[in-house]
Amino acid sequence: MYGSVADWPRFYKDCYDHLAPGGYLEQAELNPVLTCDDGSIKPGDAIDECGKLAVRFGEVFGKSLMVEEFMQDDIRRAGFTNVVKKTYKWPIGAWSNDPKLKELGRFNLRHWHEGLEGWTLRFYTKYLGVSDIFQPIASACWKPTLLIERLANCPSGVMKKSRSGMPICGMF
C-alpha cells in the first residue's frame, strides 16, 4: 500500500478503531531502498539509485514510500498489541537454488521489468514537471530516454547468478 496513504499513523489508528475486539491487521510492505543479506548492493549501484529516487518521489508527491521502516512503531502507537514482524528474502531473478525462491524470483523479476519504467516515468512526468519527453528532467538533468536506459540496469544489479544476496521484505 505504500505510495497510497498520506498519513500512516492516522491510517493505523482508523484500522484499530474500526476492528472488532480480537480483530487484527496484516500488512506487507517493501522498502524501496533494497538491501541484500550479503551486502552485494553497494551505494551508487543502479538498484541503489532507483531506491533513492523512489524515496524522493514519495517526498515530492506527499505519500512516503518508506512505510516498512516505520510501520511497526506506528502500528503499536495506534493501540495494536502483539505486533509481529516477519522478514522475507525476495530475490529478483531465478538464480536461487531453493525451488520456491527460484519461482518467486522469476515473478519478481518480471514485476520489475514490466513495472519499473511506468512507475518511474509517472513520477517524473506528473510530479517533477516533465511535460515533453525530449526536454531535460530538471531535478536530475536527465532526458527520459536516458532515464529509461539507466532504469534498464536496475534489476540486473541483484539478479546475477554470481550474487547470493537477496532483497529483504518486511511483513507485519
Residue share in helix: 40-55%
Report the count of strand segments: 3
Contiguous uncertain segments of 5+ residues: 132-144
Main beta sheet strand tally, sense and closure: 3 strands, antiparallel
Q: Supply Rg.
A: 18 Å
Tally of helical segments: 6
How are the strands of the largest sheet arranged?
1-3-2
- N- and C-termini, Cα separation: 13 Å
Mean pLDDT: 76
Assembly type: single chain
Shape: globular
SSE string, helices as H and strands as E: HEHHEHHHE
Description:
- With 172 residues, this protein is mainly alpha-helical.
- The protein is built from six helices and three strands, in the order αβααβαααβ.
- The protein has helices at residues 8-18, 46-61, 67-77, 99-127, 144-151, 156-159; strands at 28-30, 86-89, 168-171.
- Helix 1 (8-18) crosses helix 3 (67-77) and helix 2 crosses helix 4.
- It is globular.
Give the secondary structure arrangement, pairings included.
Blueprint: H1 8-18, E1 28-30, H2 46-61, H3 67-77, E2 86-89, H4 99-127, H5 144-151, H6 156-159, E3 168-171
